[in-house]
Write a structure and sequence with these properties.
The structure is a homotrimer of 260-residue chains.
Chain A lengths: L3 E6 L7 H12 L4 E6 L7 H11 L8 E5 L10 E6 L2 E6 L5 H6 L3 E5 L18 H14 L23 E3 L2 E9 L5 E6 L8 E5 L2 E5 L11 E5 L4 E6 L4 H5 L6 E6 L1
Parallel strand pairs in A: 1-2, 1-3, 3-5, 11-12
Antiparallel strand pairs in A: 4-5, 4-6, 7-8, 8-9, 8-14, 9-13, 10-11, 10-14, 12-13
Helix pairs in contact in A: 1-4
Chain lengths: 260, 260, 260
């Protein structure tokens, strides 16, 4: 086996839970490479995980297995999801964490991950509280080993999807919201970069008018600017500072684009 | 070489010390895979490391080398420990960080890691302050390369062991303590899950009576519950919250189990 | 491909940017091993990154590719730097982050990384804000795949170098400054360990006289001491505590060595 598994969780690292997940994968799929993406998602924040996964899932080569466990419903009847999307595999609780992946994929198929085989000496069955170790890691290892998706369980045609608020076209621009705030305090909106008519557009957030720029370099340090982010959407930033702090903005804050 | 080394430290990552440890391993054992478990153990907190290591050491396949360096005694005469336990290798300062591994292992052998060979251009000898780079990493690379444990140094029959407080059986239940608090504020106790008679047991902590549940899902958000953790012990948690904060509990807080 | 790439950034991990960088590398250089060093450099703090990189770049084996992206000037005209130093490769913004590497290397050659090829489906061209994904990661993958440095772009003979303050020899010792403060609150100075005449030297910082010791073990817990660090320079520490907090010291604080 020479596959690659990526990990995204809200576990932090200091308790050793991440080691447990990696150990199960390493044992079930020896030789696999495990890439950490993050263990620092705010606890239980499925939306944050959704945006984070969207930033990398398709940049990895086909065959990669992405494990994403932010799972406030562990121990409830929420299903375990395994899917294949544009050649990559994803394993996660069925709580919406893969919403944007499913939105972006050209084609996908999903199953409920039920038939996961734990190493005999780990547990007699899944624990009530640690499905990352007992369900998701074995499923990821299964896929990284090249076994078929369908063998994990029955087809699942209706995975849970979080509805991202849609931006609204208006006569001379559009109205959207902040959908994510990153570590730098940059505000990612749901406004498509394509809506900008650069020469004559401006952004309004919380009563402030923000200039559109092509790059950070066109802004003075401390200046509030809007630009098209690396995700292709309109982003609001302060060069060498935090737009979130400066504007008192957060997820859900309304953002208006006006042209002309 | 195609071995696997895991790392657990209290170094944080921002100073580059972790890179130094990994570089020494990568040079001495090219091709080895290095899995981070944590670099975020509270500085000098050997007990935390002890519980973290216990969560993953045996889930990894045989032949894995676990390096665990939380070393408040660096530069003193404390010994460097290398051991083999149930087919896995462990390298750590001899300060008790492997206590639970030695408790849990069916069989183990240990040596004092003395004969560690540094690459010639690194240092003429070990520094006084960075044994992770100069002693522990070379020892781990040695083992990951398939060399014999015994070649690292003389047998060590009495590794330092931290005595975990033992739970006490009482007439209608038992008395234990909180032994670890995790990132979510969940309280891990030393009470074995097997002591529970679920239908008729309850837990008391700091004057509060806590209900026993089988899963988080049986609790309302914000409710204080007790359940059997993924470690097989009684754990106290708040669904979507922190039991540590709610109860003002920490390591050493007394926990009482009453049945009937 | 079986190369090794290390990563040092100030991205944090929770937004998924690190996943994007790793994904691009994994796709362009399948089979490569990616070692995280840190994603926790204080945002935009090039000096911190400079000292961190110096701690590990040469401990890795020849052929390793070190990617170091702390890039407050992203989107400006600052160049992208790729170099080979003593057999290791380094890729970074040309903002001084590799200053100490260039100081320490016996020989180095550098190019401006211009001709980086993105996978066709990632972007039509580099974004204005995420050069780690669009420029630096492809350049690192190029080198990890064994391709020639020169093919990345034209020679660059004058990479940006941050001038570290030089320590000054005085009649009976020397005067230097704190150049970095690590996670433990230890103060790294620019004073060479070789300037110490141990029996008769003392260190003065912010009005306090600090004793020179050979190891932490010679100090009482809580005692302020100076010793020769694992970098070969004089370091000031508090055993089981923070010298930075104790002395109110930070980068730039003057440190005086007096002998006799």
């Amino acid at each position: 086996v020479a596959g690659r598994v990526t990990l995204l969780t809200d576990f932090g690292t200091r308790d050793g839970y991440v080691g447990a997940v990696k150990g199960v994968i390493a044992r079930a799929a020896p030789g696999v490479t495990i890439d950490d993406v993050s263990h620092d998602i705010p606890p239980g924040d499925v939306w944050s995980a959704t945006y984070a996964v969207a930033r990398y899932w398709r940049l990895y080569p086909e065959g990669t297995v992405h494990l994403a466990v932010v799972d406030p419903g562990v121990g409830t009847s929420r299903r375990a999801l395994a899917c294949e999307a544009d050649g990559r595999f994803l394993v996660a609780p069925d709580n919406g964490v893969l919403s944007r992946v499913l939105d972006e994929a050209t084609r996908w198929t999903a199953v409920e991950a039920r038939h996961v085989e734990l190493p005999a000496d780990v547990r007699t069955g899944p624990s009530a509280t640690f499905h990352a170790r007992d369900v998701f890691a074995p499923a990821a290892a299964h896929l990284a080993s090249g076994l078929e998706l369908e063998r994990l369980g029955p087809a699942l045609s209706d995975p849970t999807r979080l509805a991202e608020p849609r931006p609204v076209r208006e006569e001379r621009g559009g109205r959207g919201v902040v959908v994510a705030v990153d570590r730098f305090g940059d505000l990612l909106t749901n406004l498509p970069g394509g809506w900008i008519a650069l020469a004559s557009s401006r952004i309004e957030v919380r009563g402030e008018s923000v200039r559109l720029r092509r790059t950070y370099a066109e802004a003075a340090p401390g200046e509030l600017i809007a630009l098209v982010s690396s995700d292709g959407r309109i982003e609001i930033a302060v060069r060498h500072g935090s737009a979130a702090a400066r504007l008192g903005a957060r997820r859900g804050t309304v953002v208006r684009l006006t042209s002309g």
